[in-house]
Design goal:
GO terms for molecular function: kinase activity. By secondary structure, the protein is an alpha/beta fold. The chain is built from nine helices and 13 strands. It has a single domain, classed as UDP-N-acetylmuramoyl-L-alanine:D-glutamate ligase, CATH 3.40.1190.20. The protein is globular, with a radius of gyration of 18 Å.
Length: 301
């Protein structure tokens, strides 16, 4: 196994991005798309790409369908410098339809969920995870069945566990084992009424760091010592907002590695980590791909 700074566990997908003037109303009607394109997607693929973009050696452990689409997606990731280990599933590769509005609003529709993971593939995934965790300085565990299956290995062996709970509302049961396993929690504030209060509660409960992105209002974080930081959203012309949160997370994690771990993100270092996240998110939203690295990768066959 090559050198690994961060193990990323979770999905890779093929995404059909359809841009509309506004999201459809909940009633029968016809709308015309402004554009549509098929791109590489998946929250874990995005994090791995943006970590590599920041000079971090990332190993991505991800599901792959038994079709040519899956092979092409992982080939594109490898061409960008991501060390990919495929966990083969039964059935086609994961596919999403993302409806995007001009204001950056999104509705994500699963056209094809990841298939079941055969027992032998899961055993191989556990072995790969154990080997990688022996040298990785952190693991990013995304919300997926594969990740949930590996929580025992991760909690036993990882130096630091980062979890992105996305638009968690504070109540959904699926998220709980991920939150319990985490040293660091990242999220967005779409469905959390008082995100700063929630982040402070996480840190008071023993988490090393809590971070929440707030869309056009920027991002906030609470460090291990209770220190609070906020940054404004970047003022740039947005090409495509898809993947901004994953890029932001990669920027924050890369800065944490630079200073010696999430527990050291306090005071100025906490603000600097949010600035690093903002800088990386800017690279994402000014690209038509999940990461600008993909703009220079060979086209998928």
């Amino acid at each position: 196994m090559t050198d690994v700074d961060v193990l990323v566990v979770g999905p890779t997908s093929e995404n059909l991005i359809v841009t509309l003037d506004r999201l459809p109303r909940p009633e029968p009607h016809t709308v015309f798309a402004e554009s549509s394109t098929t791109v590489l997607g998946g929250t874990s693929a995005g994090k791995a790409l943006h970590l590599v973009d920041r000079g971090v050696a990332a190993l991505l452990l991800t599901t792959q369908g038994d079709d040519a689409t899956g092979e092409a997606l992982l080939s594109s990731l490898r061409a960008c410098g991501v060390d990919v280990r495929a966990v083969r599933t039964d059935g086609p590769s994961e596919r999403h339809l993302n409806l995007m509005s001009a204001r950056g609003e999104r509705v994500s529709i699963y056209l094809q969920a990841a298939g079941e993971i055969p027992d032998e593939e899961l055993r191989r995934a556990r072995a790969t995870a154990r080997e990688a965790l022996g040298q990785a300085r952190a693991v990013f565990l995304d919300l997926a069945d594969l990740s949930r299956s590996l929580i025992p290995e991760v909690t036993a062996l990882a130096h630091e566990v980062w979890v992105d709970i996305h638009d968690y509302d504070g109540a959904e049961a699926f998220h709980r084992p991920f939150i319990e396993a985490a040293d660091v929690i990242l999220m967005n504030g779409d469905r959390m009424e008082n995100p700063s209060v929630y982040l402070r509660g996480l840190v008071e409960g023993g988490k090393r760091l809590g971070v929440c992105t707030l869309g056009a209002r920027g991002a906030i974080a609470v460090g291990s010592d209770g220190s609070f930081a906020r940054v404004e959203a970047p003022r740039v012309d947005v090409v495509d907002p898809n993947g901004a949160g994953d890029a932001f997370a990669a920027g924050v994690l890369s800065h944490a590695l630079r200073v010696g771990g999430a527990e050291r993100l306090t005071g100025d270092a906490l603000w600097e980590a949010l600035e690093a996240g903002t800088a990386q998110a800017t690279r994402a939203i000014t690209s038509r791909q999940l990461s600008p690295l993909l703009e220079h990768a060979p086209p998928r066959g």
